[in-house]
Structures
1.
Amino acid sequence: MLKLRKYFSTKQTPQSEKLPGSTQIKNSAGGYVWEVNDWTRLDRFLILGSESGTYYAKPQALTVENAEAVLRCLQADGIRTVARIVEISTTGRAPKNDPALFALAMAAGLGNDETRKAALDALPQVARIGTHLFHFLDYVEGFRGWGRGLRRAVGSWYTQKTPAALAYQAIKYQQRDGWSHRDALRLAHPKALLEEQALIYKWITKGATDFPEGTLADNGLRMIWAFEQAKQATTVREVCTLIEDYRLPWEAVPTQWLADPKVWDTLLPILPMTALIRNLGRLTKLGVLSPMSANGKLVAARLTNEAALKKARIHPLKVLSALTTYQQGHGVRGSLTWQPVQRVTDALDTAFYKSFRNIVPTGKRIVLALDVSGSMSFRDIAGMPGVTPRVGSAAMALVTAATENNVEIMAFSRDFVPLKISPRRRLDDAVKAVSGLPFSATDCALPMKWALKNKVEADAFVVYTDSETWAGITHPSQALVPYRQKMGIAAKLVVVGMVSNGFSIADPKDAGMLDVVGFDTATPALMSDFIRD
Ligand code: CA
């Protein structure tokens, strides 16, 4: 007999070969998978970014690939693309806003008339703070010139703000990454709608502080006045009084005073959530946060306030990154050290789960399968220090495990093994458990094969992976077919894409398979909806 079946079978095809009759493409590891559509790719880019690259792709190549997908989306439906950028950005679904600003800049420069207008109109929604505006300006210069449309949009960013809001932005984010408000105002030339605005522009562009008599009653000018006073302060008492009376943000406090615990004691009640999370190490080092202290209690209460977390768009990835850094007692560069306060660490653990969109439990039987192969252990997600795709998957799996009562968390590369992690264990502990696992080749068909072999009843398989699978003798989609038949369960497959490449093991033609994006705050809820119906 000629061994023809070995070369061509729709039931069993090695992953190194294309599924017969399919539209599969070759992934970077040499296996065959499906290419996600451009809209899924857009989501992956907006949420996971490309700045860290992947095990297989350098940041530059990954950015080019993603930008080309954004371009195809803009050509197919520019208005839909802009709407998606606005949605992902304003609902805080992504850990970083830069991909959204970059995509918006592309839309503002490369879209058709209607799209360019929609993108520029959306600027204040997507560029919510000074830093966002500066990054947008930097990106947009790569796609267009300073025509009337851009001048007007940037001008509106300033004129639409109340003097108080504008002054706050101007002293909090004076300059970032080579751009300043002075640059932006000089290029956009907005016409002030109010006298206070005009005075603030003059202060920004010329440093003029000769505010006329009486105008200081206005909040914005008062804050700028206080900011200038703080620069000349000679005692910590003066600085603290200015912070208290004028609600100065910490960025407006001259650096030499930021080493004084009294200054942080004063700042603490008015510190925005993002600044609070960013400064936990410093606050602990200075003794502002200590075990059993009133400040510790206050901070723990703020960190676990779900409404406040959501209002401040605190992304779980930032919380995870803050938790892993805080509990190790030293900064990323290691210059700052502190003794972590247990209450704060625990609060961060709780904050992580609370920063996801509300999830309705499915009550179904779910196998959560984490790809722990080599490629998942390389490069950080969205540039977050210490959070590799493998660590990120463990954290994501715990979110689902925390709401479901019938889950099995497993890990695979060459073998398929139970993972001893649970939401009852603290996150950084769980992260350590997955970080220590050995890794080897990748076979994403293992979860289904294991479940069939062991007669495990599962309504859904959730696979956290980069879809760089290549080592199996059967495609993952093929492994699901006999499982469904022999077990008599119409089991579903959810693929959680953990990097912003274009690959997926989900068959786009199978309605029982779904692609979602890792570290999208909406992902656990989207998965739950899909598995429940
Ligand atoms: Ca791999």
Note: Residues 273-314+316-354 form one domain.
2.
Amino acid sequence: MQHIVVRYGEMSLKGKNRSDFERLLLRNVRTALRPWPDARAERVSGRILVTLQETSLEPVLARLQRVFGVISLSPVTVTDLQLEAFQQAAIQLLREYESQHPDRSHPTFKIEVKRTNKRFPLRSPEIADEVGGACLRALRRWKVDVHHPDITVFLHIRDAEAHVYGRVVPGQGGMPAGSAGRAGLLLSGGIDSPVAGWLSMKRGVELEAIHFHSFPFTSERALQKVQTLAQTLADWGGKVTLHTVHFTEVQTAIRQHCPPPLYITVMRRMMLRIASALAQQHGLLALITGESLGQVASQTLESLHVINAVTRLPVLRPLIGSDKLEIIELARRIGTYETSILPYEDCCTLFVPPNPRTRPRLAETEAAEAKLAVDELVADAVARTTSQVFLAPEWA
Ligand code: ATP
Ligand code: MG
């Protein structure tokens, strides 16, 4: 039998927020554990304790590392509240370290005790001395080094039991999936919008992705790419719905009726109008984009201002303060980068005029839309939108 302690940010939450957080996190941890029927997860005062009967540890740790809301994880030995039991568990940990690092002739350790159980008769420094002494007597090659030990043995004396462990694996932090309601992610095939979506998921948002597709100007493969991205995001948060909007008619109409320097601005406004209509239809409370500032010529404050004017929904831009290199690094870590850099064009690349206005004004943009049948185009696009649901394997 093996145990994993799952830690979350209980300190930063109060009252009902805290109990909702714990309930959702426990549900999500249990869902993540579905592939391992012998795994159990229970709440034990401010932590979740996972128990495995036969399953090996590493795949479970790797999966739980991806659950939003988890701050860190440790494989632990659970012992009785007995000094000898702590000593044995600590010695066992050091032995494991030895067998994994046979090259070290004089490995070093330290013992770090946390005693939340104030009724336990010995105090932390005394416990550390007793356990450290037993380790030194049992394992002659080892030395104590309190500054730079090869391994720290953590000993947590809790009310009903103790946890002994040597590893702390970081989680993602954030809020449990499903704790923040649903929002619409404008998902292109590029690098940025999947990352913006992931950052929102990390704060508990359930995503409904909205993709604008201009068949036959953009290929079936461009669409598949976006489907792959939706699946990759779903693998993190459980579920992503993808709404695919047929955008060809809108783009054609813009080309017919608007001045070329404002194509992009008008196109973005049309995207946002259609996304807002879909949001209303599906009960989404905000929209999310991968926009940043200054990254491309069109991403100026003037441009965001003019684009934003068509909607009353909050438009979240999680990447507003990120540099491209940071975004790429995150894209690699979350697994979207390789898909995003596949070459298939999306609808915007095909639509760039030779001299786009980078600082459009609201009045000139509204004038540029005068001949555009905005409401009809929006209604048609919404009516022709198709939807697909992507689920993480264990949610299916
Ligand atoms: P990305 O890498 O996300 O495509 P980008 O740096 O290429 O971003 P733009 O192409 O200017 O920037 O797009 C800005 C934002 O507009 C995107 O992050 C995305 O949220 C939205 N967007 C652009 N094209 C589409 C599309 N075809 N479908 C849905 N949303 C889109
Ligand atoms: Mg793009």
Note: The first strand starts at residue 2 and ends at 8.
